[in-house]
Amino acid sequence: MNKKTHIFGGNGFIGLHLQKRLRNEGFEVSVGGDVTKYDEVVENIKDKDVIINLATVVQTIGNFDATKDLEVNLCGQINILEARKNTNPTSKYIYIGSSLQFGKVEENDLPIKEDYPQRPLSLYGVNKSAAENYCAVYKRAYNLDSIILRLPPVYGPSLDGRETRSIVEKFIKIALRGESFTANNFGLDLKDQIYVDDVVEAIVLNIKSPITHEVYNFGSGKGIKLLDISKMIVEKCGSGKFEEVPYPADRAPFESGSFYFDISKAQRELGWSPKINIKEGVERMVDYYKNKR
Hints:
- The chain has about 290 residues and is an alpha/beta fold.
- It folds into two domains: about 5-155 and about 195-215, 3-Layer(aba) Sandwich (Rossmann fold), CATH 3.40.50; about 155-190 and about 225-260 and about 275-290, UDP-galactose 4-epimerase, domain 1 (Alpha-Beta Complex).
- The protein contains nine helices and twelve strands.
- The chain has helices at about 15-25, 40-45, 65-85, 125-140, 165-175, 195-210, 225-235, 265-270, 280-290, and strands spanning about 5-10, 30, 50-55, 90-100, 145-150, 155, 180-185, 190, 195, 215, 225, 240-245.
- Helix 5 crosses helix 9 and helix 7 crosses helix 9 (about 280-290).
- The protein is globular, with a radius of gyration of 19 Å.
């Protein structure tokens, strides 16, 4: 396999894991480029067989730069679509979406299918949803194909030592230091988590698939309470402790409640299923960070 592949955001948490896998399989991989600068995007994609957009910015709820969120999460997407249309329309394009596009859902609608209405609660979710819609518009207007992979929170070891956005990683590091962490009482909600290796497998399967335009949900296919994850972490670490505390009032308007994806379409059409459940994932991460120490 010698497909020329470019990854925007390729030096981030998921990107580093993906780079490693693709290079091991013989892909020619390049990374980098500022998605907010059209000319840079053109230079990076003009001779590529596969383009993957992992570039994103996630900001703290209640303390965000709306312009920056728009520029990276939406305008960056438009730059890539325009550059593909003008210079490389036959390339395979994979865009990474998010469960935050959906906002708060009805619990009796769980698990959430691909066509469920999107009502995002955060700027990040708003711009990710709009970015996905731009793919649909460019398909109708220019027959430009895109594959959209929607993900719940992703967890796993950080290959470059930087903190990821994963609450699982955060809790593990605190517990390994023998310290205490707090689980907000939304820990009673059912949440979806996916291990980074399963994400990489999903992306690789889509690269290799003959499918060029589709939308897929990925995840564990079931929910788990954050409190149960917290118990797993303390037990596996053999140190640390946690306590349940009230959810911060200023963040309550942005909390989506229980959420997990229906993954049957990806299972049916791609032959993908998650291989690493939350218990094994926590064990892998604890072992990884113990060895790092």
